[in-house]
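2024-03-11 09:14:02 INFO worker-7 job=invfold-0412 stage=load source=structure_tokens
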């Protein structure tokens, strides 16, 4: 057993039993090892969850970075959509990610921020928009994943519309982008 196998099996365990039921005891049983042997790779359950969160984000973490000349608006939307898709790949993906620290992703975050700033987005607005979009996305996915156990929309009262999670996400994302656009000058007029 190595760390990568343990994390991969832990993510499969997450998909099988949900975040509240992931434990080092269950993971050890799944791996066919004694629970203390996991402590070689993960000192605490929190360390295991952090490794799982980082591995679960790999599809988004390996997405193409923006290039000079890219339209920042299209990139901003695409980046948020990529983040959402990645969170949805795993059962309880948003809960797993919430509160994690992207320590392995700092260079990518800096490159994304540099791109936005060089595109004319004021630095403070770029920071706040990225934070708002990230938290909005996690919140949307938390709600969407919680709805997996909700009653069938056809059984709702007539005056309660079924929620289209993707449409609601896109509408909110458009509002964040619209607000950011109001504070952004074209690169040739930025000061």
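2024-03-11 09:14:09 INFO worker-7 stage=emit residues=191
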């Amino acid at each position: 057993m190595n760390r990568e196998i343990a994390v991969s099996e832990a993510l499969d365990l997450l998909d099988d039993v949900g975040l509240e039921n992931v434990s080092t005891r269950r993971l050890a049983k799944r791996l066919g090892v004694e629970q203390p042997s996991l402590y070689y790779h993960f000192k605490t359950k929190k360390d295991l969850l952090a490794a799982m969160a980082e591995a679960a984000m790999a599809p988004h973490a390996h997405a193409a970075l923006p290039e000079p000349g890219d339209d920042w608006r299209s990139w901003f939307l695409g980046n948020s959509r990529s983040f959402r898709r990645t969170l949805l790949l795993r059962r309880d993906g948003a809960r797993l990610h919430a509160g994690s620290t992207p320590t392995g992703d700092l260079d990518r975050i800096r490159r994304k921020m540099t791109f936005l700033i060089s595109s004319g987005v004021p630095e403070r607005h770029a920071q706040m928009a990225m934070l708002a979009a990230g938290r909005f996305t996690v919140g949307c996915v938390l709600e969407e994943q919680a709805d997996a156990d909700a009653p069938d929309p056809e059984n709702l009262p007539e005056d309660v519309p079924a929620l289209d999670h993707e449409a609601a996400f896109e509408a909110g994302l458009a509002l964040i982008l619209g607000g950011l656009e109001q504070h952004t000058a074209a690169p040739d007029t930025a000061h």
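2024-03-11 09:14:09 INFO worker-7 stage=report msg="The chain has nine helices and no strands."
2024-03-11 09:14:10 INFO worker-7 job finished
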